[in-house]
Design brief:
CATH superfamily of the largest domain: 5'-nuclease
Distance between the termini: 41 Å
Number of strands: 8
Strand content: 15-25%
Helix content: 40-55%
Oligomer: single chain
Length: 257
């Protein structure tokens, strides 16, 4: 499937047992779904979020997933009928959504189980873009190869301590510093997605997807253009004006040798 520069409309399906066990086997304490959601929201708008598990076995995950706005699908009979009952329910729901909700163009499958490879193939037949997310050591190469792109949870977990920064950021007032951090974070996200030209409107939309409460006025600016101009003044970014539209294009600041 060839994607353009418009935002993706994403449905997220989570095989919780698979990723929880996979994360546990790596020596990490627990699976953090927010790491996955923060990465996916850089790609587009998440419109469906569902997690499948026997929740009597994963009680400690119910609250954080609820807080993340994820619908919990209970497969309490999985002990009797086997793990595949949850897998089959997830497959059926994903296919139904793929056939009935044509505006959803992207499916994110959080699992490393090769059993989902036929689902991936069927969704791709119907012109859906597939993003896989799983733990590297417990993810089937067959699943990885079938997806349009695959994100390893291990890489997301490694990045938890990284924060966007620039010269002199620590000396800025908190509202301004937060605005610049969100700006640089959004630019980094767009670079990861190879968006090419970073129009100011695209940068702002990305900031709002990642932080829905974002408002330039809260940070002391009368317009988003004023925020960008101030960031350029602090040598965090470089701006150029598009000759046809007159709008700003945002670029990385040139770093000193």
């Amino acid at each position: 499937m060839v994607l353009n520069d418009t935002d993706l409309s994403i449905a997220v399906f989570i095989d919780l047992e698979n990723v929880v066990i996979g994360v546990r086997d790596t020596g990490r304490k627990r699976f953090d779904m927010n790491l996955v959601l923060r990465r996916l929201v850089e790609k587009g708008k998440i419109v469906v979020k569902r997690a499948y598990a026997d929740w009597s076995r994963y009680e400690d995950y119910k609250r954080p997933l609820h807080e993340a706005g994820i619908e919990l699908i209970d497969m309490s009979s999985s002990r009797k009928t086997g793990k595949n009952s949850a897998d089959i329910k997830m497959v059926v729901d994903a296919l139904e959504l793929g056939f009935t909700k044509t505006h959803i163009d992207t499916f994110a499958l959080v699992s490393g189980d090769s059993d989902f490879s036929p689902l991936v193939s069927k969704l791709r037949e119907n012109n859906k873009h597939i993003i896989g997310i799983g733990v590297k050591s417990s993810t089937s190469p067959l699943l990885v190869d079938n997806c349009d792109e695959f994100i390893y949870y291990d890489d997301l977990a490694k990045g938890t301590t990284k924060k966007p920064s620039g010269r002199g950021m620590s000396r800025l007032a908190k509202p301004k510093r937060e605005a610049f951090e969100q700006l640089l974070d959004a630019m980094a996200a767009l670079q990861r997605e190879n968006k090419g030209v970073m129009w100011s409107s695209l940068v702002k939309d990305t900031m709002r997807r990642k932080q829905p409460q974002f408002s330039e006025e809260y940070h002391g600016y009368s317009s988003f253009s004023r925020l960008l101009e101030d960031a350029q003044k602090h040598k965090l970014i470089k701006l150029r004006s598009d000759p046809r539209s007159g709008t700003y294009v945002v670029e990385e600041a040139e770093t000193e040798a």
